[in-house]
Write a structure and sequence with these properties.
By secondary structure, the protein is of the alpha+beta class. Helices cover 44% and strands 12% of the residues. Helix 2 packs across helix 3. 14% of the residues are buried.
C-alpha cells in the first residue's frame, strides 16, 4: 500500500504534473487535495473551489468533478455551494 507521502511525486514546484489515471492513485491525490485545500466546517462557492484547485492544476473543473464523484466534496443540488465531506477517521482522531 502506498503512503500519503507518495502524493508528493505527483507534484513539481508545487504544481500537479498530471491527474493520475489509476483510480487508487487518483483517490490518494483527491484525498490529499481535499485535506489540504478545504476546511470541513465551511461552505465554498464554485468559484472559490476553482480558485483553490487552480493553485495546483489548470484543469480545476476536472478536479472539482473528481472530488464530488469521490464523495470528498458535497455539492448542493443547484450547484451554488460546496462543502468538504468530513473524514471520519481524521475527525474522530481530532476529537480525542
Amino acid at each position: 500500500m502506498s503512503s500519503g507521502s507518495d502524493v508528493a511525486a505527483l507534484f513539481s514546484h508545487g504544481r500537479l504534473t498530471t491527474i493520475p489515471r489509476r483510480p487508487a492513485r487518483r483517490e490518494q491525490l483527491l484525498t490529499h487535495l481535499a485535506r489540504t485545500l478545504f476546511e470541513t466546517d465551511r461552505d465554498y462557492t464554485e468559484s472559490e473551489i476553482n480558485d483553490a484547485l487552480r493553485t495546483v492544476h489548470e484543469d480545476a473543473a476536472a478536479l472539482r468533478r473528481y472530488l464530488v464523484v469521490a464523495g470528498l466534496l458535497a455539492r448542493t443540488r443547484d450547484g451554488s455551494s460546496y462543502r468538504r465531506v468530513a473524514d471520519a477517521s481524521q475527525d474522530s482522531a481530532a476529537a480525542e
